[in-house]
Design goal:
Length: about 120
């Protein structure tokens, strides 16, 4: 009798996409950030996919409360990743988020939408 195939083991990556977050000053500067989460658990991957909208709301809340000057600091990306991971981990109950990758992570300028004028 042959051994059963090994279970599909992680790590699993979930891409939350790239988003432009209007910074606190509301002056046309945005943080463009792409977010990828890694988890060792298939169950956690499914929860992240299922709760994607809620997790993105947390991303937008964190980003829109960031000052542009804070994003100019040398450790801005590491701080943002740490803060985001803490918030998302509190929301994800089925397991750990073992890694968060932010790419791109850059400040951009573009015209404001009419709603912010």
């Amino acid at each position: 009798m042959a051994d059963a195939a090994p279970a599909d083991e992680g790590p699993y990556t979930v891409d939350l996409g790239t988003h432009d977050l209007l910074l606190r000053e509301r002056d046309g500067r945005f943080l463009r950030v792409g977010v990828r989460l890694t988890t060792p658990s298939r169950t956690t991957r499914a929860e992240i996919a299922r709760r994607r909208e809620a997790l993105l709301r947390m991303l937008y809340y964190l980003g829109t409360h960031r000052a542009a000057s804070a994003l100019e600091l040398p450790d801005a990306e590491a701080r943002f990743a740490h803060d985001l991971r803490q918030r998302l981990q509190q929301a994800v109950k089925t397991g750990a988020i073992s890694r968060i990758d932010l790419a791109p992570f850059e400040m951009i300028e573009k015209p404001l939408p009419d709603a912010y004028r």
